[in-house]
Design brief:
This protein is an alpha+beta fold. It contains 11 helices and 12 strands. The chain has a 5-stranded antiparallel sheet. Helix 6 runs antiparallel to helix 7, helix 8 packs parallel to helix 9 and helix 9 runs antiparallel to helix 11. The N terminus is likely disordered.
Length: about 375
């Protein structure tokens, strides 16, 4: 199931499946493991008959342990849940929802987790379907969707504008070249050279706006550490003094199918931004950029759940992104430094999205982290 299912939709899916949870029917429920939210089938006393994979990273418990327990034990105050489960099982109501606190269980979530609970009837008087959504997760997903939609609109506007600029720009440059051949004054020749130079600069800018959308996606086996090493070498060659690039790699990460050059460009754009932000730290000799790779488990990218994903963090100890542009860093032509084109992070986002991944940012003075997530097969 590629898309997130909501309570009633899940209930309809299961209503014909749960006359008995024999092995074949449990296997049929395996599709629920792809959901981003936690879904459980429970008896009226709270005993779990089925839980999907989304519970494991949240509760820090194995599925077998959860099936031996009661759903009610996982909540700080289970009275509202007990009452709701009983009412739905009796068909007093077909569905009910409320907010609650999922109890902190162990090191994964040592404190209680705010969640939204949806209890649905599944045409059985002794069991119900319970869907649990992390409120923070839902907020993040909504934010990602809004950001992605805004980015798509912005990129479409920029592409259209670039096409409109491209044709007259060629005419301006050609006219300046013809004029340069006719004039004899050295001063006037300098003026025509300025026109040609600026036209070339604008042409390069337009090409950068258009290239990622017409460049073919060259798919091959990619080792993310080769990508990181290439970026590290380029950054250290450009900034040889005062900057340390730290490698913190997970050697167990597998290769995956992707466009190596696009990924190098994406990571390089992020690292370049970090290096430019570290100018003062470089002068002091303590600038640090860290390239960190990890395996992320049971992650949600967009509205789809993935068992494994590649996590690449680019971290720096710079002053942080100005608050005025923090929410717009991936928008085209938004830059935090003088002379910046505002295209580096936009292109990085485009290239990561072409690998079905996401890129986001957290920033405060002294620590900025860009996080790239790419699903693994």
């Amino acid at each position: 199931m590629a898309r997130l299912l909501r309570g009633p939709a899940v209930a309809r899916l299961l209503s014909t499946r749960l006359s008995a949870l024999d092995p074949d029917e449990l296997a049929a429920l395996g599709g629920l493991d792809h959901l981003a939210t936690m879904v459980a089938v429970v008896e009226i006393d709270g005993h779990c008959l089925f839980v999907n994979a989304a519970f494991e990273p949240v509760l820090g418990l194995s599925r077998r342990a959860m099936l031996r327990g009661s759903l009610f034990d996982w909540f700080d105050d289970a009275q509202a849940l007990r009452t709701t489960v009983a009412a739905v099982a009796r068909n007093d109501v077909t569905t009910s929802r409320f907010d609650a606190l999922l109890r902190g269980l162990g090191p994964v979530h040592p404190v209680s987790l705010p969640v939204h609970v949806i209890v649905n009837n599944i045409d059985r008087d002794d069991r119900v379907l319970v869907e649990i959504i992390e409120i923070e997760q839902q907020t993040r997903l909504d934010r990602e969707e809004r950001a992605q939609g805004q980015a798509e609109l912005s990129k479409e506007l920029i592409r259209n504008l670039a096409h409109e600029i491209k044709n007259p720009l060629g005419g301006i440059r050609g006219a300046a070249q013809l004029l340069q051949m006719e004039v004899t004054s050295r001063d006037l020749t300098e003026y025509t050279q300025v026109i040609i130079h600026e036209a070339d600069r604008l042409q390069a800018l337009v090409d950068r706006l258009l290239v990622p959308h017409r460049k073919p996606h060259l798919v091959s086996d990619v080792n993310i550490h080769e990508v990181c090493e290439r970026v590290r070498a380029l950054i250290q060659a450009e900034f040889p003094r005062g900057l340390t690039v730290v490698r913190d790699y997970d050697a167990s990460l597998p290769e995956f199918r992707g466009d190596r050059e696009q990924l190098i460009q994406a990571v390089l754009n992020v690292a370049h931004n970090a290096a430019y932000a570290l100018a003062d730290r470089m002068a002091a000799g303590d600038a640090v950029i860290t390239l960190r790779t990890r395996i992320a488990r049971q992650v949600t990218v967009g509205r789809q759940r993935y068992r494994l994903a590649l996590e690449l963090l680019v971290e720096d100890n710079g002053p942080g992104i100005p608050e005025s542009i923090r929410d717009r860093v991936f928008y085209p032509l938004v830059s935090g430094r003088e002379g910046g084109s505002g295209l580096g992070l936009t292109l990085a986002q485009t290239f990561v999205q072409q690998h079905h991944g996401t890129i986001d940012c957290e920033s405060r003075p002294g620590r900025t982290v860009f996080r790239i997530l790419i699903p693994l097969p």
